[in-house]
Write the structure tokens for this entry.
Amino acid sequence: MEISLVMIPIDFSEAAAASIRYAKEMVKCWQSQFVGIHIIDDNLVSHISGYYKEDESAVRERLSNQAHQALRRFVKEHGAADLVKEIVVSHGSPFQEIAIKARELEVDLVLMGGYGSRGKGQIDEIFFGSTVEKVVRLLPCPVLCVPTDWGGE
């Protein structure tokens, strides 16, 4: 199996930074590229819209613009700008959107940062599983989870 396109979901956390560090090593070896994706949760849009009494489409557009800029900056700060094929910002439920976009873009691998079995202690993750676990269930392609403390370099 040839790996030519890797998707990295980026939520600007240390887990996402670990994914980028790992991806830098992988894509150089495979001479491949990666797609950085950020998902804006529709629940967040709804909350912000309600709080500021602003139309959801305006909130969604503003958050999308901010996310595009932040993604470019995040990838550049982690020294991977030359390995990025595309930056994608999407809206919806994070695990569902990751799965949808991975299929649409026909990625060969999804590389995600994770907190491991110790988790972050969130009740939702205990009862419903982490985003990584949900993505694994939905995708036909491999999903590689990188521990947050993976140092690389």
